[in-house]
Amino acid sequence: MLGKVNRTLLAVIGAVLLAAGTTLLGGWWPLHGRHVPLLTEEARHRYWHADGWWWWAVPAGLALCVLLALWWLLSQVRRARLGAVEVDTGDGAFALLRGRALEEAVAAEAGALDGVAHCRASLCGRRGSPALRIAMELEPHGVPADALAALAGPVLTGARTSAGLPGLPAEARLKVTSHRAQRVT
Question: In terms of pLDDT, which residue wins out, 80 or 165?
């Protein structure tokens, strides 16, 4: 979601800046030439001394822009990964399992599957209800259905039991490694 917001925001800002730059450099409408002031004396007097919605709309629009910019900045800083998972120790207390350790274990087990060239895993969600995002890169001879079945079976079951979780939802994205075509002679 955040990637789409970033791309959209950059596209809109880029289009506005491009339009403003070409308008100012070309001296086109609404400037009516390079030597004509941007606001005429009449326009400055009308808007400067206006009573009504104009002076309320400008600060409100600017405040909205500032709030949206702050939201965007804070969403860039926020971590998407989960740092730790709560594991019930059985005596009423909880232990913390490092999220990075669980990610590395799942990635190592899934990377060792037949037909998998490379695997990355990231833990997201909350401490009480984590979820996994797994990106698997398959070798050219790898069968996606077999790799997905092996991932859903022993790999995720082992991760679920070792973390003491009743459920561990996972989202897997499969990609095939690029390879050169083989010559037939």
Answer: 165
